[in-house]
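In the previous chapter we treated chains in isolation. Here, by contrast, the input contains three separate entities that must be folded as one system, with a combined length of 1155 residues.
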Amino acid sequence: MAYYIFKRLVMALVVMLLATVLLASLAHLIPGDPVKLMLGPRASEEMSARVRTEMGLDDPIPVQVANFVIGLLQGDLGRDFATRSPVSNMISAALPHTVALAVASLGMAVLIGIPLGVISAARPSSWLDRTLGFLSVSLITVPTYVSALLLLLLFAVGLNLISSIGAGDFSDPVGYGKQLLLPATALALTWIGYLARLVRTSLLEILNQNYIRTARAYGLRERTILFTYALKNALIPTVAVLGVGMGNLLGGAVFVEVIFTRPGLGSLIYRSITQRNYPAARGAILVAAFLFVLANLIADMSYRYLDPRIRTWES
Amino acid sequence: MSVEETTMLAAIGDESFAKRTPVIRQLLYRPSAVFGLAVIAVLVVLLAFGPLLVPHPHTAQMISRRLEGPSADHWLGTDHLGRDLLSRLMIGTRVALGTAFPSVLAALLSGLVIGLVAGYAGGWLDNLILIAMDTLQAFPALLLALALMALLDPSINNVILVIAIAYTPGYARVVRAQVLSVKEEQFIEVERSLGAGHLRIALVHIVPNMLPPLLIMLAMDLPSAIATEAGLSFLGLGVRPPTPSWGTILSDGFERIRTTPWPVIGGSLALMITTLGFTLFGEALRDILDPRVSGSRRV
Amino acid sequence: MKSLPKLSCIMVVVLVLGTVLAACGAEEPSTVPSPTPPEAAEIEPTEPPEPTQPPAPEEPKILKLRITSDMRDLDPAFIPQNVDSNISSNIHEGLIVYPGDLTKTEEILLAEPFTVSDDGLTISFRLHEGIQFHKGFGELTAEDVKYSFERFQDPELDPPYRDDWAALDKVEVTGRYTGDIILEEPFAPLWQSTLPVTAGWIVSAAAMEEMGRDALATAPVGTGPYEFAEWIPNQRVVLRRFEDYWGEPPEWDEIHFLVITESSAAEIALESGAVDFGAVGTDAVERFEANPDFDVYPVDTLNYTWMAMNVQHPNLEDVNVRRAIRAGIAVDSLIEAAYDGRYARARSMMAPSLLGAWHDAPLYERDVEQARAYLAEAGLESLDVTLTFENITENATMAEIIQANLAEAGINVELIPQEGGLFWEEGYGAEGARVRQLTLMAYATNPDPAWVTVWFTCAQVEEWNWMYWCNEEYDRLHDEGMREMDPEARAEIYVEMQQLMDEAAHSAWIAHPTSFFVAKRTISPVVMATGEFIPWRFTSK
């Protein structure tokens, strides 16, 4: 197990490093002269040339990439082209809003998706199970931006119930929570469907296993079996998918943050890409990738730690 | 294979039925698969004959009648240039399917080649390819597509390219795993001892064996590819404005969501029905061909 | 069987991690902690406070304004866009200022009016004594004026707005508070579009010395009624009332500029009370006019939008082809569809209220037959051209109509939407002259005709003249206009220049945009014909 953890950690680090190099070299291929963008329409050629030198844009691309990686190790993500302020400032201003969004939607998915899965598994093949099954597939297939647009249309425009713009301020938790409700729901819907299916499947699988049959044979009540024995083990696979879930949440966050105009990591990525502001785009995508790799790592580790079958198999 | 096949088919319920019935007939016994097939059939008809079926030419503008609601003349109303929304959604099928099919197919083919090379060669080449795939997969698929689209001009071909790149690692992994498991099987050993070349073994024995799982993957990836194309177009990083993509229709609608809800509703319905249809069909296909694989990878 | 506690344990760890991350990140960008919870921001819409019963002192008055993009550079010599000048104008002051109306100016920092020498080349000033800079950078002196104006000529700094002070020889300091602005030649735009705008704002020489331009660009120091407090990138900029301000203390304790890019989002923000004031899209005007809680302030700007045709491109070098295109498009439907018919159609690049506007300029109506005839005159039956535009909603709408319009005249248009950075870079100079054909353009201007004509001179073919058109007579007139001090004679010069442009048929003029600002009924805003607004002059009713 210790060897496995070590190997997995080393792999994650190597992948992060390679991803950084890939992204840093990609960014230099973006068309558009970043200096002109930074200085505004009326800047002179001489001044553009000077800034180009100042920012090291005249160096060969491998040197620029190496400089970026070295800077990154010191926590420096470069300076934004538009404002010349550190990219790390922009990211630290944006990240909390995306973390709040991701935590809220994962929370929603767990609180709604798991009970739906249990209800389905409790009466397999009943009409309720079939209805929930269809509902789950539908939720899984609806693209996040469609959910977001329809929620916006229904609750903010149609019913005028919720002001759905911006993120609000952390110093006002109640207001912030209200602002979070619609975006988090839009992002959670897919995962509600996904968790409901996953829990149903693994629950049914476990209910068919020997120890449950034994428990039944001993005359334990079905409810006790379901909640005391089966559910605990059925939840383990959900931990494994949380890693993948993080990636999807980060992707979906781009749409949700753009549609609900939240100043998070996703909208930062979108804005920097459309404005060809490549230091900002590079930094923000990199942070998203790191979060994704980290989430996968944690999910993988916890899954192995939690699942007794894998543990015995590993040792 | 036969033992696995039995367990596989047992999940469907009626073993003997499954054994002697062709896949298409089995599909027709599942309501969800029938729904999926119907949706796909309609989409294919629109793809082929769309321009003949539309109630209005999809580019005909009528500025004085822009942003109207549904009427007998325009069933879903008109867009911001007074063009018929229904006609544009119908023509939009061409972009949706015309992007999703080639891109997923390209991902499958390149994944097949990469996976075969990795699994078959083994050693350092295998490790190199694995790390490269890991690196690509370190980025959430949509963010990778976004980053690549930033480098390219928005056009259908570039969207196809970008989606293909984002989806390739998934196929390469599956193919590699399959090659590894098949490679050591007895009949391959026998062939090799009989002097068969690597390419022959790969093409005759390994590839046909892995086609069913790859087909399932392809069916499950189609709806996500459709959603990705529309998503990129929604963000203005997909196809160019005059081409009616469901994503650009949604984005035009989003800009005017307080004025008229119809473009958002129409575009959403088109996307929801299409992705649901493809997914239901893909799942039915999976249940029939290989019930062990569960859940779709991308959501 | 012990897996559930472990599971919940891990979930708790993840949640805690998330919260810690959120908490850490939230504090980093704040340079100055905001002392007030947002609820305190609500301005009571009813019953203005009685003079005998002042409002509770702990309730700060906050003015919340929408800005359409994040700030980029607040240094007066570098201001890249209206957003930055809207913020910076509260922090910096010039010797003179527009009182909210571009036709007149008022002297503010001066103890007595300017004295101008007979040849108009020496302008003497005397500053008020005791005016303080923000953040303890001391008293405003004539040295600061000298520094602020002469830096435009500094080849090391080379600011983009150097031409605003093109005629400046030097500023001579004659005493602690007095000095002379000395010009090399007469300079007509000085009083209208140099001294009262960003180029005339005074910065602190001491602060520049100590902090450097880069630091001041995003945390400037001036003498204005508000000092810079905080900037959270892409979210908000906060200004706080400057307690040692020399003039009348302004109304608001704090001004918050909230970044809201999308018009639809801004409209919701207004309706929900998240902002008090901001520009809205043309499609929302009717809704806000009908809403009793809001006032709509339409401002006809001097800005101009048009479709530029590259006269150097082989496809467009024949004047008849350009005439065909000009005759082929329906400008009124462009304005109808893109701006809900709410913008005034442009006859030339000069808005009617600008000195020198050509009021009798021809308005071209769509005539497909005429367009085909022009095309035939050029020896063509059909033509393939490209139309490049910055990818925003209104442009995309217009481009699609132009495409459909010209198709009927036998001209096939390929649309090339580009994001801001690429759009501005590709069209610039020689590269643009090579690749661009038709381009949708929008320029803003200060209220002087020279600020409009300057972009279409021969020298600008290398920069921002995106018709890539060079006419020596036009250039000569432009120089003459800068030196001519008599308004009527000036006006004639500019009309002649517009006629030259009309003959060349290199532009299809579209509109002079109207900015629609919406304010809560309880607020009286001050907006200008440049499309800028002046927050520190806002008052509550």
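The two ends of chain A are 7 Å apart (CA to CA). Residues 70 and 76 of chain A are 8 Å apart (CA to CA). Compare these points with the single-chain example from earlier in the chapter.
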